[in-house]
Description:
Layout: E1 11-15, H1 44-56, E2 61-65, H2 75-83, E3 90-95, H3 100-109, E4 114-118, H4 124-131, H5 136-148, E5 155-160, H6 169-178, E6 182-187, H7 206-211, E7 216-221, E8 224-228, E9 235-239, E10 252-255, E11 260-262, E12 271-272, H8 278-290, H9 309-312
Parallel strand pairs: 1-2, 1-10, 2-3, 3-4, 4-5, 5-6, 6-9
Antiparallel strand pairs: 7-8, 8-9, 10-11, 11-12
Helix pairs in contact: 1-2, 1-8, 2-3, 3-5
The protein binds S-adenosylmethionine and iron/sulfur cluster.
The site of iron/sulfur cluster has 12 residues, from loops.
Amino acid sequence: xxxxxxxxxxxxxxxxxxxxxxxxxxxxxxxxxxxxxxxxxxxxxxxxxxxxxxxxxxxxxxxxxxxxxxxxxxxxxxxxxxxxxxxxxxxxxxxxxxxxxxxxxxxxxxxxxxxxxxxxxxxxxxxxxxxxxxxxxxxxxxxxxxxxxxxxxxxxxxxxxxxxxxxxxxxxxxxxxxxxxxxxxxxxxxxxxxxxxxxxxxxxxxxxxxxxxxxxxxxxxxxxxxxxxxxxxxxxxxxxxxxxxxxxxxxxxxxxxxxxxxxxxxxxxxxxxxxxxxxxxxxxxxxxxxxxxxxxxxxxxxxxxxxxxxxxxx
Length: 314
Ligand code: SAM
Ligand code: SF4
C-alpha cells in the first residue's frame, strides 16, 4: 500500500521484546529496563494476528527485532507462525547473535530467511566494553552456527562510533574479501542512551569511503548505499540516517513490543493495536501507513521520540 506521499510501504519491523542480554552503551541503560509484566507485551497470538493483518495491508517483509529477539520466550513459535502467513515474502531478524549457537537451526527450520548480526568491533576487549556484558567469542560462535544452519547471506551491522571503532573500518571492510557477507556501517543516532554524547562520536558513514578509497559503488539496496572491494565475495553497505536523509525512500513501519504502531522510528505518534482484530486491526494499520511522517526530525539535539532504541527496535 502507498502512503499519502506515494511511498510504497511493504516492510514491517516488529519488536518482540524490549529486554536484552547485552547493555550496549548507545542503546540500553546499564541496569537494563524495568521488566514489564507479561501481559504488557504482545503475546505470540497477537504478534501472529498483527502479521496477518499487516500482510493484508501490503506488507511483504517482516523483520523481527527488539531488544534482543532471541531472549523472547516462544521466539521460534513466533517465527513459525509468521513465516506461514500468505502474502509475506520474507521473514528476517536482527540479533546480537549470542544465542544463535542454540537457536540458528530452529530459526531456519521455522522459516527465517535472513539474519542481520550486530558487530561493532573485532576486539574482544572493546566488544566487552561497548556491550558491557557481551562476549565476542559468543558472537563468532553464533555467526558460525548461522552459516552452518544455512544462513549464507549474512549482514553484519556496525554502528560507527568516533574514537571507538573508526580505526577498525579497514579491518571490518576486509571481512568482505573472503566472506559473502554484507558489512554495513550505520551512523550512530543521538537517541536514548547516547543522546548527550560528544559530537565527535557521531561520524558520517562517508568516513568508510575515506578509509577505504578502493571501494567501488554498486546498486543500492533499500536505504543502503552499497560498495564492493575489487574481487571481494561480499559487499559493504552504508546507512546514513544523519548525513543523507533517506526518508523519501523509506518503506517501513514499526510495531513496538507493547503493540504500538509507529510510522517512523523517531516520531512520537503511536497507534495502539492491542485489542483490535480483523477489519479493525487492518484499518488501524492502514491509518498508520497513511499517517507516516514525511521525514524524521532527528538532529544532534535529539530524536522526536521519547522511547529508547531497545523499546522500538532498531
Ligand atoms: N538486539 C539486536 C541487535 O543488537 O542486533 C536487535 C535490536 S538493536 C536495537 C537493532 C540495531 O539498532 C543494532 O544493530 C544496534 O546496533 C542499533 N542501534 C541501537 N541503538 C542505536 C543508536 N543510538 N544509533 C544507531 N544504531 C543503534
Ligand atoms: Fe541489546 Fe541490541 Fe540494544 Fe545492544 S543494540 S543493548 S544487543 S538491543
